[in-house]
Amino acid sequence: MPFWDNARFLCVTLVVIGHGIQRLISDSDNALIVYLFIYAFHMPAFAIISGYFSKPGAPNARQMRRVITDIILPYVIMETIWTLVQFLVEGKKEFNPTQPSWTLWFLLALGIFRLILPYLALLRWPLLIAVGMSVGVGYFGNVDSTFSLSRAIGILPFFILGWRAREWGVVDRWRRLATHGWIVRGIAVAVLVVWLAVVATWIGYWRAIDLRYWFFYDESYRALGDGEWWSGLVRLALIALAALLTAAFFVLIPRGTLWITSFGGSTMYVYLLHSFILYPLRETGILKDEHSSAVWLVSMVFACIAISILLSAPGIHRIFRPLIEPKPRWLFAETTEGPMRSSRTDPTGSRRARRDR
User: How far apart are CA 234 and CA 142, in angstroms?
Assistant: First the structure.
């Protein structure tokens, strides 16, 4: 379905833009407006897509092997590379795979989601329970970023929502909606415009309370400076906001084949590799002071779009496939299921139309 390929590419492009303008937000309100607008829903949208293509049943040997090849091994490889890069550039000498570097937290979160889903699927109200876990985990300061546990539990409701959305047939119903589709799109545009207006109007307040850290879902309420009993209601409101914004975003995604559709199969390449391109900009401090103007902001947005397109190129796949899609057949015991065939998907559901060798 072209819709999902379009959604994957647009989501990962928002991720790149968010990371690209991050160093601008300390000196630019305009950058912070764009940043908060994106961060309110872009990772929840990613989690929903991943949940939509996940199976709730007990995993078989092939599926468990794919968790190793698609999630665990790429994480170990990329974390090792990041450790080397940080040693060469910053002099850091610690290799600690329990604390994921920068963007790698989402890989671990996907692994946690895959482990939790079969158990939640057995329960009567899995989505409600996932929301309760997300809200509740913020009260425990000992649940931190180790193995991305706090962040994984924080955005778990969106992964479960994606899985439930497929069971409810939400996308199929939307595809069949023709007569009043323009009305729904109009409402979606209004929702996004209102959120943008809210962010822009009270940007001083959002900066003062460090709203952006609430969108990371990786700190306890006390660490965020809000250790009151009602702090969980704030996260609950942000979960509801993210669900609303994500729904509006998905409604506006084209359902037909576009020039970006073919890029949808490159989600993990863009996600895992873009940080190496942005890293020099982040560390040199070039995106500060006089370089935080609106011109630089717009330039960075377009540069991030170009990076997403560049990393979706087939040549990038050929070069970096051993890192992103490792195939260590020697690592596995012999099984009766045989080799994995074509029509394989990555952790976000992107098709890999080839036979594993």
Answer: 20
The answer to whether 96 and 49 have CB atoms below 8 angstroms apart is: no
Residue 95 forms part of a structural domain: yes
Q: Tell me if 74 sits within 8 A of 323, measured CB to CB.
A: yes
Counting every residue written for the chain, the total comes to: 357
Domain enclosing residue 127, as ranges: 2-352
Cα–Cα distance for residue pair 12/265, rounded to 1 Å: 11
**352 has a pLDDT exceeding 80:** no
Q: Does residue 198 belong to any structural domain of this protein? A: yes
In whole angstroms, give the CA distance from residue 253 to residue 175.
Answer: 12
Each residue's pLDDT tens digit, 164-210: 998 888 877 776 665 567 888 999 999 999 999 999 999 999 999 99
Q: What angle do CA 302, 259, 350 make, to 5 degrees?
A: 95
Task: Please tell me the distance from the alpha carbon of residue 71 to that of residue 356, in angstroms, as a whole number.
Answer: 16
pLDDT tens digit sequence for 248-275: 999 999 988 999 999 998 999 999 999 9
Read off the tokens for 243.
Answer: 């669900």
Q: Report how far residue 109's alpha carbon sits from residue 104's, in angstroms, rounded to the nearest whole number.
A: 9
Closest CA to 46 of 77, 5, 16, 8: 8
CB atoms within 10 A of CB 124: 6
277-303 exposure pattern, b = at least 16 Cβ within 10 A, e = fewer: bbbebeeeeebeeebbeeebbeebbeb
Whether 357 is in a domain gets the answer no
Residue 323 has which token pair? 């890192």
Domain assignment present for residue 252? The answer is: yes
Report d(CA 219, CA 146) in Å as an integer: 11
Question: What are the pLDDT digits (tens) for 56-82?
Answer: 887 788 888 888 888 999 999 999 999
pLDDT at residue number 59:
79
- The number of folded domains in the chain is 1
Report the distance separating Cα 263 and Cα 10, nearest Å: 9
Q: From the centroid of its chain, how far is CA 234? A: 21
Per the DSSP assignment, residues forming a β-bridge with 345 are 351
By C-alpha distance, which of 169, 135, 167, 172 is closest to 154? 135
φ, ψ at 264 (rounded to 5°): -65, -25
- The reported pLDDT for the residue numbered 342 is 44
Which amino acid appears at position 314 of this protein? P
